[in-house]
């Protein structure tokens, strides 16, 4: 009777581990196999993606996962010597091997052993295509094994001509303006200023010879190496019967030189780069590989072109007019950004992330964090209106103020013109962007109200409970600030900005459709009061310059940081909310107010488009009264004015203004001047004093915050 063989328990564990490992390997390979079938067998890379505007009109067609402007080249349109040059250079047995070339691999191994390093590669065109499209460039054993397996799989699934065609459109041939040059279409246009079908055998061999080191072995850097490599490729072509003796002689006698051409520039680069990124975030990178997509954006090409032109001309004009700007621009360019949003939907109509995309691709509309300055006061005053503790006619004191900070130091806030006006109404303080009465007001209503409103408005920063908070000392993004201003034309509702409306596959099936994201921040009546104050900034306050451009109907707020390093204007006309920022990336001083730096660019954006001005209707909960502008009381005959003021129902004043001799005495005691125009620029000496005061104030605030944090840390 035979006895059963009992295997050790550890062998069963090893077998299970091996089985699971093999399954994982097969799943890993299967995932790549699916991509090969989808991208190369289906030839989806040949299908263009069509990008549509907000109105549904076609804007542009792009190819590939990285949205290139040059269409793919088809093998049948090329003379045979073009493809044969790349075969001679990279894979002479391409037509006969199975995706990998054992002979070539052995030859490369022998050559590398003799050279004592990697002197020659043994990769076939199949392997190079797999590596460039699906794998990384890391040199590891695991990656190489996967490359070999997938190359054989590719060769079994796809015809040789289709593999070669995909390779000729994918091969890396250098860099241009920070982007890779991919495929012979781009290379021949850029380096030789002609189409691939016009290449001579010598030119085709020169481009093929650059594959090994396209940024090093170029005619302008190493002409002798390029010539020798080209002639060696031509010799292989002659040996293989792909080129006759006359063709070899002509090709080897040609000069090796670039005839510099160019590639078509990407229109609206800031917008399309951001749209590409949003598409990836919404649907994943795999969707870009499908090809044939229909992508509807929110772009308005007329607004985008107007914004780009305004930024370019505005920055150039400021650099020309002010010598200190020109001196700073020698070290770094003056930058500006524009963001235009349709308030009801949140659709981004235009987006300019900087002055010149060719020199810097940094997107100031999304990636930059800067102090908004007085442009943030809007939300502090909104918190005050919502509290119902004050109205637009409430009197505030504009007089010297000392604030004791947490570290027991004293902070003395100042107005931009270093003047004090006595008593002013809340409207006058806001329209004139006065700092001192703003600080007093926030002390009365509580900074916690301001922080609460700011968070509801979409700001994600960690706002600190410090007296300077309402003056815009916390850094925010341009997108946050612009989106927050949609509250006012929408009467209390914030809409989240977006660029991508919908995506369809090449069969017309909907893959994605944007759902509007809205948040009720405040009631309509409070938003309307704030809208009235923002209109006043343009009519009577720091943005009166806009009336020179025929834009007296708009509403908005200037924002000049306390150190004159950043200039902002955020405003709206009808449903279109537009923000402009001007400054230097590394903080060089502008020494210009927003009226001088940002408003001209903002005005240029708006005057260059077909806008639709409209008046907001007063919602329920609003009352209008005639007010004496000097006392904030109800107007009657014999008083200055009247001013037609807006109030939340139940908050309007109930007392009438003083008149006669008594009224004159009251006015002389309580009121000063009423000039609110921002100075166009500050002198260097004044700026130096201001900067010293600001630095000292920042150090005091920082010291106070450190003490508060230390106290919180020590609490049990």
CATH structural fold name of the largest domain: Beta-lactamase
Query: How many domain modules?
Result: 2
Largest sheet properties: 5 strands, mixed
Number of helices: 23
Choose one word for the global shape.
elongated
Binned, the helix content reads 40-55%
Q: Determine Rg (CA atoms, Å).
A: 34 Å
CATH architectural label of the largest domain: 3-Layer(aba) Sandwich
Residue fraction in strands = 5-15%
Mean of pLDDT: 86
- Counted beta strands: 20
Poorly predicted runs are none
Class per helix and strand makeup: alpha+beta
* CATH superfamily (homologous) name of the largest domain: DD-peptidase/beta-lactamase superfamily
CATH class of the largest domain: Alpha Beta
Strand order of the largest sheet: 2-1-5-13-14
* Terminal CA distance: 78 Å
Concise overview:
By secondary structure, this protein is α+β, with helices and mostly antiparallel strands.
Textual characterization of the structure:
The chain is α+β, with helices and mostly antiparallel strands and 716 residues long. It has 2 domains: 362 residues, 3-Layer(aba) Sandwich (Beta-lactamase), CATH 3.40.710.10; 182 residues, Penicillin binding protein transpeptidase fold (Orthogonal Bundle), CATH 1.10.3810.10. The protein is 42% helix and 13% strand. The protein has 23 helices and 20 strands. The strands form 7 sheets. A 5-stranded mixed sheet has the order 2-1-5-13-14, with helices on one face. A 5-stranded antiparallel sheet has the order 7-6-18-17-16, with helices on both faces. α1 crosses α5 and α2 packs parallel to α8. The longest helix is centred in the first third of the chain and has 33 residues. It is elongated and about 110 Å long. The N and C termini lie far apart (78 Å). The mean pLDDT is 86.
């Amino acid at each position: 009777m035979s006895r059963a063989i009992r295997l050790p328990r550890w062998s069963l564990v090893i077998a299970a581990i091996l089985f699971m490992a093999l399954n994982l390997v097969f799943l890993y390979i299967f995932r790549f196999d699916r991509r090969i079938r989808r991208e190369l067998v289906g030839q989806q890379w040949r299908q263009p993606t069509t990008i549509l505007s907000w109105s549904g009109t076609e804007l542009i067609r792009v190819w590939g996962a990285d949205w290139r402007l040059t269409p793919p080249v088809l093998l049948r349109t090329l003379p045979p010597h073009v493809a044969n040059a790349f075969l001679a250079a990279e894979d002479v047995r391409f037509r006969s091997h199975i995706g990998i070339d054992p002979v070539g691999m052995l030859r490369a191994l022998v050559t590398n052993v003799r050279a004592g390093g990697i002197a020659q590669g043994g990769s076939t065109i199949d392997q190079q295509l797999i590596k460039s499209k699906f794998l990384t460039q890391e040199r590891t054993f695991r990656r190489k094994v996967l490359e070999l397996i997938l190359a054989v799989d590719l060769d079994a699934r796809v015809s040789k001509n289709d593999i070669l065609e995909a390779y000729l459109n994918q091969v890396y041939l250098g860099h241009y303006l920070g982007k890779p040059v991919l495929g012979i279409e781009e290379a021949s246009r850029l380096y030789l200023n002609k189409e691939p079908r016009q290449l001579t055998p010598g030119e085709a061999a020169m481009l093929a010879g650059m594959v090994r080191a396209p940024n090093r072995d170029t005619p302008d850097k190493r002409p002798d190496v390029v010539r020798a490599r080209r002639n060696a490729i031509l010799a292989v072509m002659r040996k293989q019967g792909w080129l006759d003796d006359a063709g070899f002689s002509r090709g080897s006698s040609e000069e090796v030189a670039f005839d510099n051409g160019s590639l078509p520039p990407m229109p609206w680069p800031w917008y399309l780069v951001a749209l590409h990124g949003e598409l990836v975030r919404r649907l994943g990178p795999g969707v870009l590989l499908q090809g044939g997509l229909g992508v509807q954006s929110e772009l308005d090409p007329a607004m985008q072109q107007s914004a780009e032109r305004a930024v370019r001309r505005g920055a150039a004009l400021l650099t020309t007019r002010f010598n200190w700007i020109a001196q700073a621009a020698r070290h770094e360019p003056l930058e500006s950004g524009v963001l235009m949003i349709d308030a009801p939907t949140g659709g981004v109509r235009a987006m300019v992330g900087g002055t010149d995309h060719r020199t810097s691709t940094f997107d100031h509309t999304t990636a930059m964090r800067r102090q908004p300055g007085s442009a943030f006061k809007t939300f502090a005053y909104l918190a005050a209106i919502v509290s119902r503790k004050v109205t637009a006619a409430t009197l505030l004191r504009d007089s010297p103020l000392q604030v004791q900070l947490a570290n027991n130091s004293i902070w003395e806030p100042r107005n931009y013109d270093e003047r004090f006006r006595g008593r002013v109404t809340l409207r006058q303080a806001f329209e004139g962007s006065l700092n001192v009465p703003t600080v007093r007001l926030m002390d009365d209503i509580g900074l916690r109200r301001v922080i609460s409103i700011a968070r509801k408005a979409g700001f994600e920063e960690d706002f600190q409970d410090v007296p300077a908070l309402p003056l815009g000392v916390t850094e925010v993004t341009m997108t946050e600030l612009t989106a927050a201003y949609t509250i006012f034309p929408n009467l209390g509702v914030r809409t989240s900005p977006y660029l991508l409306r919908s995506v369809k596959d090449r069969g017309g099936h909907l893959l994605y459709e944007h759902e509007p994201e809205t948040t009720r921040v405040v009631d309509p009546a409070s938003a309307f009061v704030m809208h009235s104050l923002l209109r006043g900034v343009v009519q009577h306050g720091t943005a009166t310059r806009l009336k020179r451009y025929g834009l007296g109907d708009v509403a908005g707020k200037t924002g000049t940081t306390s150190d004159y390093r950043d200039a902002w204007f955020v405003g709206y006309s009808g449903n279109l909310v537009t923000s402009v920022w001007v400054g230097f990336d590394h903080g060089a001083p502008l020494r210009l107010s927003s009226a001088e730096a940002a408003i001209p660019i903002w005005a240029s954006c708006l005057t260059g488009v077909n806008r639709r001005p409209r008046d907001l209707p007063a919602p329920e909960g609003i009352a209008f009264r005639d007010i004496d502008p000097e006392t904030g009381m109800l107007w009657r005959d014999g008083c200055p004015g009247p001013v037609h003021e807006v109030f939340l129902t139940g908050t309007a004043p109930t007392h009438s203004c003083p008149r006669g001799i008594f009224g004159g005495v009251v006015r002389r005691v309580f009121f000063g001047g009423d000039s609110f125009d921002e100075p166009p620029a500050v002198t260097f000496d004044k700026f130096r004093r201001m900067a010293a005061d600001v630095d000292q104030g920042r150090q005091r605030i920082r010291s106070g915050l450190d003490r508060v944090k230390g106290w919180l840390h020590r609490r049990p």
